[in-house]
Amino acid sequence: KQDVNSGCPAAKVTMLPLRHALAVAVVHIFILSESWALAKNINFYNVRPPLDPTPFPNSFKCFTCENAGDNYNCNRWAEDKWCPQNTRYCLTVHHFTSHGRSTSITKKCASRSECHSVGCHHSRDSEHTECRSCCEGMICNVELPTNHSNAVLAVTRAPGTSGGPAPRLQLPGLPALAWASVLLLL
Fold it and tell me: Would you indicate the residue range of the signal peptide (predicted)?
């Protein structure tokens, strides 16, 4: 015999998992849409060095992509792997039209010889410009070279060279400080 107040028990059992599944789906859609909106606001300048151990001394990583359509997607989907030991720089090659629209972007690890031809070169045949830049340092190739002032080889200074860090202030050792405080007490 069926209770009048409870309705159809089979319908209630079927509706409960369906409602739960619908609620879970709505929450997942909300989370995914929120993640997508936040992905457009990635700050590539605030990328922290990786926590995994370095494969060799002075190793580094670069943003890497091959013929990407725009800088955002190149940086967003760049492979996260260490540069080979025979490289020292991050290279960016930017092809764009005379109207400034990017046609291809390539970023990779590079040797010194690959960075000798930095600068911008305009092709009159195709009306395209190619700008190449190299930089030294962990994931330093965030921006695109677009003219002669930023299509350069950016090298960091080695410690101990001219213009290097200021000399350290030498503090007296602990025994000297102990004697000075004893003398002040007398």
Answer: none
